[in-house]
Amino acid sequence: MLSSRPISFLRRANGSFALISQFKNQKFNASTYLKGKESEPINNTIGYFLSQNARQMPYANALKCAHQNVNWSFSTLKKHAEALACGLVELGLRPGDRLALIQGMNAENIVALLACAKIGAVLVPLPDIKAAKDLTRFIELVRPRVVVSATKIGTKNYYKMIREVVPELSLSELHLPFKSKKFPFCKQILFTDMKEKPKEGTYQLKDYLVYGPFGYYETPLRRIAMELDSTNPGLILFNDKNPDKATSAVYSHKNILNAGLTIANTLGLKQGDRVMVPKYTTSPTGSIMGNFSAFVSGGVIVYPAEEYSASNTLSMLSKEQCTTLFAEPQELEELLNHADFSKNTYDHLKNVVICTPLGFDSSTIVGLLGQKLPQVKSWVVSGLEETSGILTINGKLVDNAEVKVVDGSLQVKGPLVATGKWQDIGHVGFETNEDGWVNTKFQNAKIEGNNLIIA
């Protein structure tokens, strides 16, 4: 049955559409409201924040990927991100264009996101794709101008899969652009494996790193930066490996940085803290909360291996002297009950951040963590895709977030609320009323005192 309330679309300045629900004549039978404490949010772009970190603490460690022999400072990270950004501009990537990424837990994840942020492009890390038909559907949906992929991850051969999806590659010559009938929007395919020789119609990522030097007024990034602001979309995440079931959220620079700031402030993270992100590059747990809580606070992002392994994660957690671990309940339970758990020491570990959906009962996993690591503080971060994966921490509403319950329906507002979702027609805003409240899927919510309860 269709709703009787009028619905209209509002075209935003950035070209996306917001669905407006007009409540002028609707009477609320019951309404409760809760707001987190006010604090100063970040209103800068990710690129600006990267430059600021590199200027204020150039030699502080920023990224550690032991399996790639990567141990970069903020200045080095900025150098590589800007080199890729300049290369992507040469390839024709422009503000608003999408870059699809197929990658393991490697440094390329961070570099690609920062490079896209520098030029106003949008990074789309694709979920773990196992079949060519799923890759075809994701490319049709995302419509990326550039695809960046690993040649292989474990047993999955992505070069072979991409050749199956884009058969025109076999007709191309080395280093010359291909033309795909099915994907006319896709202009370049780059592979990240430096040891692999270039293939027909494709490029190696390393060949498009443009390091300069540039004069202050000559760098192509300076002009682009002047046209960007914190509301520009920077990241699209899908919540399912099946493209027919997956829903998505589009996150702005402001969403991403403020999610990281919220967690960093709550945990008291500071420069030099080592934050392990064992997986989750295609979910808010890793790509937003884990990566950017370290990035915003001046900490070190630690990736233990290209592919997730419980035994390797435990070993690297001890070896790298990590102070904070981000995990979801299933993986955390596996780590705590693993046979290798007692073989390592965790003297430096202070915080374990457990990322769960809103309404998830985390009492069992928190209890297990208390038994295994009694000296460690547990932080249960619960949220929605619409709120960058974070809305409450240990049951308390986060700073600057606002929630309202209208006849059991949960509505949210604040700097963490994503800009919308990505569909076949493009960037579409969430259903929003005239006051900026975003409707969510929860219909049995209530507020008791200062607590948000999801039935």
From TrEMBL:
By its UniProt entry, which SUPFAM superfamilies does this protein fall under?
A: Acetyl-CoA synthetase-like (SSF56801)
Q: Which InterPro entries match?
A: AMP-dep_synth/lig_dom, ANL_N_sf
In this chain the AMP-dependent synthetase/ligase domain maps to 51-169
Task: Tell me the Gene Ontology biological-process terms attached to this UniProt entry.
Answer: fatty acid metabolic process
Q: Name one GO molecular function term.
A: medium-chain fatty acid-CoA ligase activity
| Pfam families documented for this protein | AMP-binding
The name on file for this protein is AMP-dependent synthetase/ligase domain-containing protein
